[in-house]
Amino acid sequence: MKSLVGNPTVELTTDKTVFDVITSSIKSSDQEEPFIVADLADIVYKFKLWKLKMPRVEPFYAVKCNDAPTVLHLLAALGTGFDCASKNEIESVLSIGVEPERIIYANPCKTRGFIRHAANVGVKMMTFDNEMELHKVKAHHPDAELVIRIRVDDSSSICQLGVKFGCNVKDVPHLLQVAKELDLNVIGVSFHVGSNCQDSGAYSSAIVSCRHIFDIAEDIGYHMDFLDIGGGFPGFKGPYVSFEEICNVVAESLDEHFPPESGVRIIAEPGRYFVASAFTLCTNIIAKRETFSEDGEPICMYYVNDGVYGSFNCLMFDHAEVEPIPLVDPKYRPVVKSSIWGPTCDSLDCIMKTCDLPSLNVSEWMMFENMGAYTISAASTFNGFQKPEMRCILPLHVMKYLQSLPTWANLLEAFGDQVLDFSNANVSTDCDITNGNTDNIHLLPHRESVSA
Question: Is 168 found in the same domain as 308?
């Protein structure tokens, strides 16, 4: 078990919210660099909510979404599996003590060397969607447990993946026949409705297709017992489909087509669901320019110290929408037409082309909520600007819950000296939501409390 890379600050607290930590941080005279506050309690809450709403579906966290060591350590301690797409992701997960049986190599198109590496470290489950992949697996990992990935309707998702991955259902018989001739073990089917799905019905239609493929496989001589329903689950509340709505649709479809007595193991690959709402980014205004738009309207250009080459790469790669929250008292400040720019020397580095903000000054702060998904994992240090430092908060009552898990020793070793001895602290261990009790889980502050 390795300790956390980069040693992010972990603050144990009984009553502080993310906003409390942010406000105390920005009051420090030497705080100027951007920083992220991660609410680990939010991730624990999401895990327990998943187990409550979809107890039949094992979550295999999509590492590519956010590979922060703190996140991986926490989810490993909670007992999730991991969806990895490369050799390095597999190594990251194995290095924190996760067994290879808890990993699915969910990249249908892999390099030969990566396939050999998976074989060497004992990772057997892996996806495929084409005939050439079967021949590579036969040559380099003949004992693999293969999962055929099919293309399903992802038209209702923000990020559509079917254009790149997933075989057409009509091609499944041929691929399964080739696998049979190569004496390869195909254990099941996977699909992905696209990242950030906006239509719960996409899951039900995909599950129907999987049932059809299970029947096809039976005729070819494969008795499948594994189903991977992919990702697409929302990570924060929005105007579209809710996590609860998706859970209801998935549960109903699974009960109809893959009931418990079928013996089929069911997993999913949630990414943003676990981490999106847990991360809040704070940026400092490093410069301000007052100019005019093409139609002569005055506009304030604010330059902050993180941008699209850093955490805001989500604007380009994940089609994200962000909302700036000025950390100032808005009283007596006129609202002005504004734009927000990153710190690099590239004009592409624009966070928001237009928005309405109270008049702000250099050295003041903005925060952005819901910044945990596809942000820091793809951030670069272009132009020499460093990635934001990360600070984590963990209420004592949630830590008490983690202490009750059999994996506590591993998590304690990971956090190291940052976790204080609080064994005699008088705090409740009740952070169980199995009876609908969510009161003891500290979530991000509500928008109204931030703007006050």
Answer: no
